């Protein structure tokens, strides 16, 4: 028995004082109304309606039950309408997590422009250096460059790429000299993330396309890439950091890039947007995903003005295979079309 449906039929019969009129208003047959009331009374083991050939009247139990049904059905309708509203108009709290080496400076203009468009959405941003299981930890959206969960339940959308640079403060280099090869780098004080959170090996490609790997033995480790940057600024040693994180420092001269003829190879620097692969996403999640993709697409347009808008939109907004029936790929599988100059494009335009 569909008890909710039977309750709605009962309320309509009680309000119209007629099985026939209730059937007309509900667009069902008289037999269905009669059967619904009989089934409901059998379920409750109580007579709700006294029937005669000319009229009907509620029993004492029927009157009490009618009051309860009205309150329950009104609350149910209110709940369903509220849920439907959240599916069409963004509102509520958006739980967003950003982790890894995602550039914090790029998040502020993104969230500011999103809040201006959707003022009813409250944003709860969590920053972490740890791998994240989006579903297990209850987040709506993640902006990450390494995944802590994978499988059919996540959709991944690429946002762009960054690159790593070796850097140090001018004061440190003046005192200790400038490393020019990976082997010389091993002789310097290194600042890095802990080994359990970051591969302790660094892979370099030299000017002749030769590749090499060195095992880092840092003198100072800290589980925050921002703190690694501050250590480098303080002259504590040499650090390998995302270019976008230290772009302003390099421009101001407070950090200097060293080993410029060597490229640091790190697949973790591809940045992706991930969110649950569900048929009915809340409007707040859909709105943020669409806004973030457009926001970073405009950043690519600004950084690579020679490309057409349509070409860049195709590069950044197409879902990866993770959005269909295959597991979420690691960010290394992002389209190579986002390479080159777009490695420095994680800052979106200020007027986005």
Question: Please, could you describe this protein's structure?
Answer:
The chain has 352 residues and is an alpha/beta fold. It has three domains: 3-87, Arc Repressor Mutant, subunit A, CATH 1.10.10.10; 96-102 and 119-158 and 271-344, D-Maltodextrin-Binding Protein, domain 2 (3-Layer(aba) Sandwich), CATH 3.40.190; 164-267, D-Maltodextrin-Binding Protein, domain 2 (3-Layer(aba) Sandwich). The chain contains eleven helices and 15 strands. A hairpin with a 4-residue loop joins strand 1 (49-51) and strand 2 (56-58). Helix 1 crosses helix 3 (30-44), helix 2 packs across helix 3 and helix 10 crosses helix 11. The longest helix is centred in the first third of the chain and has 29 residues, at 60-88. It starts with a helix and ends in a 35-residue tail after the last helix. The model is unreliable at 306-318 and 320-352 (pLDDT under 50).
């Amino acid at each position: 028995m569909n008890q909710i449906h039977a309750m709605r039929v009962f309320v309509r019969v009680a309000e119209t004082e007629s099985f026939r009129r209730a059937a007309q208003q509900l667009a069902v047959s008289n037999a269905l109304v009669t059967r619904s009331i009989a089934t409901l009374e059998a379920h409750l083991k109580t007579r709700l309606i006294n029937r005669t050939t000319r009229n009907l009247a509620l029993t004492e139990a029927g009157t009490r039950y009618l009051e309860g049904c009205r309150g329950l059905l009104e609350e149910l309708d209110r709940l369903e309408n509220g849920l439907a509203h959240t599916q069409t108009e963004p509102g509520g709290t958006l739980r967003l997590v950003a982790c890894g080496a995602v550039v914090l400076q790029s998040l502020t203009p993104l969230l500011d422009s999103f809040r201006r468009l959707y003022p009813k959405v409250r944003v709860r941003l969590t920053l972490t250096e740890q791998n994240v299981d989006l579903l297990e930890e209850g987040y709506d959206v993640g902006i990450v460059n390494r995944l802590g969960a994978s499988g059919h339940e996540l959709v991944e959308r690429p946002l762009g790429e960054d690159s790593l640079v070796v850097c140090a403060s001018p004061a440190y280099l003046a005192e200790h000299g400038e490393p020019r090869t990976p082997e010389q780098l091993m002789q310097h004080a290194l600042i890095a993330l802990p080994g359990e959170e970051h591969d302790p090996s660094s892979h370099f490609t030299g000017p002749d396309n030769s590749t090499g790997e060195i095992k880092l033995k840092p003198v100072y480790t800290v589980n925050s890439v921002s703190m690694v940057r501050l250590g480098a600024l303080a002259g504590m040693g040499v650090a390998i950091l995302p270019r976008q994180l230290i772009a302003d420092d390099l421009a101001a001269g407070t950090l200097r890039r060293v080993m410029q003829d060597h490229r640091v190879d790190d697949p973790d620097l591809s940045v992706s947007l991930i969110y649950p692969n569900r048929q009915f996403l809340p409007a707040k999640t859909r709105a943020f995903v669409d806004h973030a993709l457009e926001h970073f697409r405009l950043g690519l347009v600004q950084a690579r003005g020679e490309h057409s808008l349509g070409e860049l939109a195709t590069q950044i907004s197409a879902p990866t295979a993770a959005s269909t029936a295959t597991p979420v790929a690691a960010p290394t599988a992002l389209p190579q079309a986002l390479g080159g100059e777009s490695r420095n494009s994680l800052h979106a335009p200020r007027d986005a």
